[in-house]
């Protein structure tokens, strides 16, 4: 008996990631595989770097995709910039600040935690106090767009604070790249990482990163070896550096990089600011429908991400049953809460190709139907009309 080929169902992905993959990207993934040192592929690599510079709004020469998921982008920043004994101020207002802490510890650094309530933005006053109390700190690390809560922190102000205290910055933009305002050079961000499976509408498995000259100076002047051979920028740049001459480092995921290249072409075609506006418009339409049902968001509007919406689950409603029914009856995926928010919120993603009017109408209509059938305490009959008005 032979094992049959795997044919996944067609789903609408409106969770915290991955998002729906654009058909142009799926087609790009199917193109013929060529060698990772082929001159034609090297030419595409250069184009990809330039397209990533546009997405990040940077002229950093070291802007490239790491051949692994967003978590490896995070590790690339930490293992290259954190040395044993370094003191790193880490902001945590959700799950992913906790992962930053883990990275600092595994690099032999000392994390100084600045903690805020989940669903809130990073408190600038707390960060300033931590910087003043730890004048020997080397780095400030924080999440721009916290995927576990849907909260956006003031990256520009946080970077300015760090630089006033002579700290480098490591910024998580996994959920923000391509979905909301992000300006690496204008805001002075020293190092940043992201992922392909969120607002870029690409498949998971690649992690865009960017380092400025200030960050690279620390990498080049380390007193100890980078603990990861695979993620050591001093070695990786032999392959991803400028020019046609490339040194073998690893076999790049050729077809996955075709997909990223196409995703970035789509972003360029739409225009970065247009993409930001689309995500915001779709968020407002979703918000209109959910609020018409009587559902509420856990993040204050001033700090709310348009692309990741954390919505309170109505009293007496079983989180898992609702998500299971949406998946089985409507082929619709939304996300569960993580950590302290498990069972308390749904995370509804509007990222990249998922941020479309038809998806919002499906999501709001399906959610209303399931909740109404379960006799949940919601208002019925007005939600879809409010969505259409907002659109």
UniProtKB/TrEMBL annotation:
Top-level EC class: transferase
EC number: 2.-.-.-
BP term (GO), one: glycine biosynthetic process, by transamination of glyoxylate
Superkingdom of origin organism: Bacteria
InterPro entries noted in UniProt: Aminotrans_V_dom, PyrdxlP-dep_Trfase, PyrdxlP-dep_Trfase_major, PyrdxlP-dep_Trfase_small, SP_NH2Trfase/AEP_transaminase
Every Aminotransferase class V domain range: 36-338
UniProt-recorded name of the protein: Purine catabolism protein PucG
Organism: Candidatus Thiodiazotropha endolucinida
Gene (UniProt): pucG
């Amino acid at each position: 008996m032979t094992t049959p080929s795997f044919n996944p169902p067609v789903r609408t992905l409106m969770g915290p990631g991955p998002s729906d993959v654009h058909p142009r990207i799926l087609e790009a993934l199917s193109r013929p595989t060529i060698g990772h040192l082929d001159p034609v592929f090297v030419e595409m690599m250069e184009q990809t770097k330039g397209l990533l510079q546009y997405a990040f709004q940077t002229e950093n020469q070291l802007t490239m995709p790491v051949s692994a998921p967003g978590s490896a982008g995070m590790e690339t920043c930490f293992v290259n910039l954190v040395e044993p004994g370094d003191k790193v101020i880490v902001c945590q207002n959700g799950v992913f600040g906790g992962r930053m802490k883990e990275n600092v510890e595994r690099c032999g650094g000392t994390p100084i935690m600045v903690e805020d309530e989940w669903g809130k933005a990073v408190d600038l006053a707390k960060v300033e106090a931590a910087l003043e109390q730890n004048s020997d700190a080397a780095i400030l690390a924080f999440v721009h767009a916290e995927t576990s809560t849907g909260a956006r922190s003031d990256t520009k102000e946080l970077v300015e604070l760090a630089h006033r205290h002579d700290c480098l910055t490591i910024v998580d933009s996994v959920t923000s790249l391509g979905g909301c305002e992000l300006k690496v050079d204008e805001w002075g961000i020293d190092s940043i990482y992201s992922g392909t499976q969120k607002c870029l509408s690409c498949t998971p498995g690649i992690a865009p990163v960017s380092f400025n000259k200030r960050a690279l100076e620390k990498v080049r002047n380390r007193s100890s070896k980078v603990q990861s051979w695979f993620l050591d920028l001093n070695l990786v740049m032999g392959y991803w550096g400028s020019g046609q001459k490339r040194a073998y480092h690893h076999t790049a995921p050729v077809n996955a990089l075709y997909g990223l290249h196409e995703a970035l072409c789509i972003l360029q075609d739409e225009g970065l600011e247009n993409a930001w506006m689309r995500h915001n418009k779709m968020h407002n339409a979703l918000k209109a429908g959910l609020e018409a049902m009587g559902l509420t968001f856990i993040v204050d509007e001033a700090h709310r991400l348009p692309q990741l919406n954390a919505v309170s689950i109505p009293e007496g409603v079983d989180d898992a049953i609702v998500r299971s029914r949406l998946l089985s009856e409507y082929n619709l995926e939304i996300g569960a809460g993580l950590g302290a928010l498990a069972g308390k919120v749904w995370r509804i993603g509007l990222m990249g190709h998922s941020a479309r009017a038809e998806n919002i109408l499906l999501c709001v209509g399906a959610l209303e139907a399931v909740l109404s059938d379960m006799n949940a305490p919601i208002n019925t009959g007005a939600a879809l009309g409010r969505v259409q008005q907002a659109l």
